[in-house]
Specification:
This protein has about 110 residues and is mainly beta. Helices cover about 0% and strands about 65% of the residues. The chain is elongated.
Length: about 110
């Protein structure tokens, strides 16, 4: 569920236990809001091996590219921040590893 706080969007994806995607979030809407700064927190539990994750961005909701990547080396939160990269859509991605990840996203 996406929440809007003035010019900040916040989204929490359901837990992911294998490679896959978190919630797709629209982060730019004409005449309503536009973002270019993103904070992605990956909260890891049940860690078994290094977890690679990334935040993907798109301007057309078809072609996605990585905006930033991160690696979790144990249980707990890992944070990546991106600034000055305006896109229309973002989605967190569990790339590889073993464990459970909950993605928390803030965009402004």
């Amino acid at each position: 569920m996406v929440s809007y706080f003035q010019d900040t969007l916040v989204d929490v994806s359901p837990a992911i236990n294998a490679a896959g995607f978190g919630n797709l979030t629209e982060v730019a809407v004409n005449n309503l809001f536009s973002t270019s700064n993103y904070t992605l927190i990956a909260v890891v539990t049940n860690f078994s091996s290094n977890i690679s994750f990334q935040l993907d961005g798109s301007i057309d909701n078809v072609s996605f590219v990585p905006l930033a990547t991160g690696t979790a080396t144990g249980n707990g939160p890992v944070v990546i921040g991106i600034s000055g990269r305006p896109v229309k859509w973002v989605r967190p991605r569990f790339v590889s590893g073993a464990g459970t990840v909950v993605f928390q996203l803030a965009a402004n």
